[in-house]
Design goal:
Strand content: 5-15%
Order of helices and strands: EHEEEEHHHHEHHEEHEEHEE
Distance between the termini: 88 Å
Number of helices: 9
Radius of gyration: 52 Å
Strand order of the largest sheet: 1-4-5-2-3
Number of strands: 12
Helix content: 40-55%
Length: 467
């Protein structure tokens, strides 16, 4: 119940509250569409709830303001009527006037007290209970014609109809809030499912990729900005996988081919030796031949194991900085015999101090020198160059005069079992084609890479090692 004084000052206003729902524990896997739908529905309910609560409060304030206006207007009428009746006939006339007005305004309840607190007039019991029914009340004073203390009046108006309107409006606003949240949830879920359809297309394209279709790439009919980086990364990954798989297939085929020859030699020599009785020297010769083939197979297996370790990211164990020229000299001395046999000379140019894994460095350089000796022109000179780069890295390469390598073959020169020209492989000095692959692996183990150039009858093969 709200009360105001005679000057018409209004009382309190209505308040509304909305609950903030708590989400349950997040599962390990969830649906993006359902989660977005739930979040947006909750946000919509909260937003609409606050907005409609403000609208409800403003509407109820308008109801109260109208009620007070009606009370003030009716109280002014009562005051004027009672003043005239007091002047004409005193309290009896005033009571008569109040009874007459009560019959015409059944929705109001009027009570008048004298200055001493005694009741002068009270309406008969109205159709509503002023103590429990929703009402609005106004108190007023009526001055007496004889100048005595004024009468004190109480005017109560039945507001049940406005309260019913308010309840209906509240139910309507709550229903609108829930309906808005439900619509937003459904619309969001439908929109998200449509928006995520490209992801379903990508998933189906991914499922279609297998070993027989490694050339398949992901693509969307309409490029999506958010998904394009993922598609490009995946396609790049598939390109690397395809290249690695092709290399692996070629590597397996090459390994089988390289091992098949010594195995066939072993089997043939053994079968020939067992075909008839052999003397001890003949059997010894067969065993020596078989030993050479076995050593060749062991070399292939050891090189393959080394390359496998390098591919797993094993790093070189670097020691203290040493003179690379000194290490080169040690390797050159090891190759003096084959160089003299081929009539080759050698020059060592430059030097650098660098921390390296000495055994690995010597092995890489030995492979480079062996490759250069194998293909160098007779009676020419080799050159080992060591150069310090501006960033602190060291470039080392072995240069020889000989047939140029085709530009198309240079990028594959460090592939396993690759030979630019099979006719260049000397039958009397067979090699299994892993030497330069090992050079590239050792360069990677030193955080570097292998390089090769060939032009104007000179070939330069080497590697760069980081500090």
């Amino acid at each position: 119940m709200n009360t105001t004084t005679i000057d018409g000052t209004a009382g309190a206003s209505a308040n509304a509250a909305s609950a903030d729902p708590r989400s349950g524990p997040t599962p390990c896997t969830y649906s993006i569409g359902k989660r977005l739908s739930l979040l947006l529905a909750v946000q919509t309910i909260i937003g609409l709830g606050v907005l409609l609560a403000v609208i409800y409060a403003a509407t109820w304030m308008l109801f109260e303001s109208r009620q007070q206006e009606e009370l003030r207007g009716y109280s002014n009428v009562l005051i004027e009527v009672l003043k005239d009746a007091d002047a004409d006939g005193g309290e009896a006339a005033m009571v008569q006037k109040l009874q007459w007005l009560s019959e015409r305004r059944p929705g109001n309840f009027v009570q008048v007290h004298r200055a001493d607190g005694s009741e002068m007039y009270r309406d008969a019991l109205p159709t509503f209970d002023p103590g429990t029914a929703p009402t609005s009340e106004l108190r007023f004073s009526v001055p007496r014609a004889d100048g005595s203390a004024p009468l004190q009046g109480r005017l109560v108006m039945d507001c049940s109809r406005d309260a019913q309107y308010g309840q209906r409006m509240a139910l309507l606003l709550v229903a609108a809030t829930l309906a808005g949240g439900a619509f937003v949830a459904w619309a969001t879920f439908w929109r998200v499912r449509c928006s995520l359809r490209p992801l379903a297309d990508l998933a189906s394209q991914t499922r279609a990729i297998d070993v027989r279709r490694l050339d398949q790439r992901l693509a969307l009919s309409e490029p999506i900005e958010e998904l394009q980086p993922l598609i490009e990364q995946f396609n790049g990954l598939m390109q690397r996988v395809e290249r690695t798989y092709v290399q692996l297939e070629g590597f397996n085929a090459d390994v089988a081919h390289e091992l098949r020859t010594p195995l066939a030699n072993l089997i043939g020599h053994t079968e020939v030796a067992l075909s008839r009785e052999r003397s001890a020297p003949e059997l010894e010769e067969v065993l020596l031949s078989n030993l050479e083939e076995l050593q060749r197979m062991a070399g292939i297996v050891n090189d393959m194991l080394f390359l496998a370790q390098a591919d797993r990211g094993v790093k070189a164990r670097r020691g203290a900085p040493v003179s690379l020229a000194d290490l080169v000299q040690q390797v050159v001395e090891f190759h003096e015999a084959p160089m003299e046999e081929a009539g080759l000379g050698i020059d060592i140019e430059g030097d650098a101090q660098l921390a390296v894994d000495e055994p690995l460095f010597k092995r890489a350089l030995s492979n480079l020198l062996g490759n250069a000796i194998r293909y160098a022109d007779k009676d020419s000179r080799l050159c080992v160059r060591i150069q310090q780069e501006a960033d602190g890295s060291v470039r080392l390469w072995v240069e020889n005069c000989g047939p140029a390598i085709e530009p198309d073959h240079l990028p594959r020169l460090f592939d396993r079992f690759f030979r630019a020209d099979a006719s260049r492989c000397e039958l009397e000095k067979p090699h299994h084609g892993l030497g330069l692959s090992i050079v590239a692996a050792i360069a990677r183990m030193h955080d570097g890479f292998a390089v090769a150039e060939s032009d104007a009858g000179r070939t330069r093969v080497g590697f760069i090692m980081a500090v």
